[in-house]
Design a protein that fits this description.
The longest helix is centred in the N-terminal third of the chain and has 33 residues, at about 95-130. The protein has two domains: about 5-85, PH-domain like (Roll); about 130-355, no CATH class. The strands form two sheets. It has a six-stranded antiparallel sheet with strand order 4-3-2-1-6-5, with helices on one face. Strands 7-8-10-9 form a four-stranded mixed sheet, with helices on both faces. Helices cover about 50% and strands about 15% of the residues. It contains 14 helices and ten strands. It is of the alpha+beta class.
Length: about 375
């Protein structure tokens, strides 16, 4: 028996709506309207799955479509073959709470594995393959942006800045990568006692960190640590990883503003970055290796970290300091107690001078 249903017809070429009649006998359907007479089998149409309260449609051969209000008709058309197997499967999946939750959990797991393993791997490969000229441009532009936003010229005299630059050259050694390392001294109360590496071997040390150190042994350990970050391309890898994670999250949430602002946040990201434990272990290993080769007890470094940790604990207890923007070296180098234990347990911490001799200033 043929039944008739009122529908709205669109020819797929213009947006004009036409009131039409759909005739269906269980196998074939006909669409009739002014100037329209379309006949086809139920297997030739496509019935997309419903989305919330949005009106359902059927897609006709030739590109036209009809808006159908009758739920019973839609169900009959689907049963008669008006939907692909994939479409039907997706529709069943959407209506199943258990399958929807499983899909959500699977998606979260895939994103987690991508963020934890996939992105770091790709970031490392990209950082190592990036042309030196490109990395140099990134480093210079980042430093210039940080000078505008965060930092001021160093208040140390030229002689002391030259001594620190010579100290970095000694720490970096004769390797090919080290030839491009450059020390930049800056005054930066907003960042506090800190040192950080930028792409292309630029290492920034703040006046506040220099003032906090009791000897050049301690500064040398910090510079060796930052040189280790540079040697492993940690700054660039971290920037790539953070940008990729931000892009993924912005894409999933549809937040285009976040995508466009990633480049603008790079200077702050590198100034206040908290490296992963893996990056910190690699940089600390580089610092310890240099101290062993130079006869500097690693305990010097551990003592410096411990003293900064004590200073930070005092600041945290002070309600006025908690409101301050000032940060220190430990703010961007987490897991301090664990790092101190590893440094003390490195073996060299118990070697010459017992690690407790008088701090000395390294010769240039």
């Amino acid at each position: 028996m043929t039944r008739e249903f009122p529908v709205a017809y669109f020819d797929g070429k213009v947006s004009a709506r036409r009131e039409a009649t759909l005739c269906f006998d269980g196998f074939h359907l006909t669409i009739r309207a002014a100037g329209v007479d379309i006949s086809c089998s139920a297997g030739e149409i496509i019935v997309p799955p419903g989305v919330g309260s949005v009106r359902r449609t059927i897609r006709l051969p030739g590109g036209g479509l009809c808006v159908v209000e009758d739920a019973e008709l839609l169900a009959e058309l689907e049963r008669a073959g008006g939907g692909s197997n994939l479409t039907k499967a997706v529709h069943r999946w959407e209506k199943s709470l258990a399958l929807s939750m499983a899909t959500l959990l699977l998606t979260a797991l895939v994103v987690l594995l991508l963020v934890r393993y996939g992105i770091p791997f790709l970031a490392k490969r990209t950082a190592l393959a990036l042309p030196p000229a490109t990395e140099l441009t990134i480093g210079r532009e980042t430093l210039a942006a940080m000078d505008r936003l965060l930092m001021a010229p160093s208040k140390l005299d030229q002689k002391r800045r030259d001594e620190l630059a010579a100290l970095l050259r000694r720490v970096a050694g004769p390797s090919a990568d080290a030839a491009g390392y450059r020390l930049e001294s800056r005054s930066c109360p907003a960042v506090g006692a800190n040192a950080f590496a930028l792409p292309s071997g630029i290492i920034v040390i703040t006046d506040e960190l220099v003032e906090l150190a009791r000897s050049d042994d301690e500064l040398a350990a910090v510079l060796a640590h930052e040189a280790g970050h540079s040697r492993q391309r940690h700054p660039l890898r971290h920037a790539l990883q953070s940008s990729a994670v931000g892009l993924i999250m912005a894409t999933l949430s549809g937040d285009l503003v976040s995508i466009s602002s990633l480049a603008a946040t790079l200077p702050t990201l590198l100034a206040e970055t908290s490296y992963s434990r893996e990056f910190e272990r690699e940089a600390d290993a580089a610092a310890i290796a240099w101290m062993k080769s130079a006869g500097v007890p690693p305990l010097r470094y551990a003592e410096f970290l411990g003293r900064m940790q004590a200073q930070q604990n005092v600041r945290r207890a002070d309600p006025f300091e908690r409101k301050s923007r000032a940060r220190n070296y430990l703010s961007t180098h987490p897991d301090t107690e664990e790092r101190i234990r590893q440094i003390v347990g490195s073996g060299s911490a118990r070697e010459s001078e017992g690690g407790s001799g008088t701090p000395r200033k390294l010769s240039n």
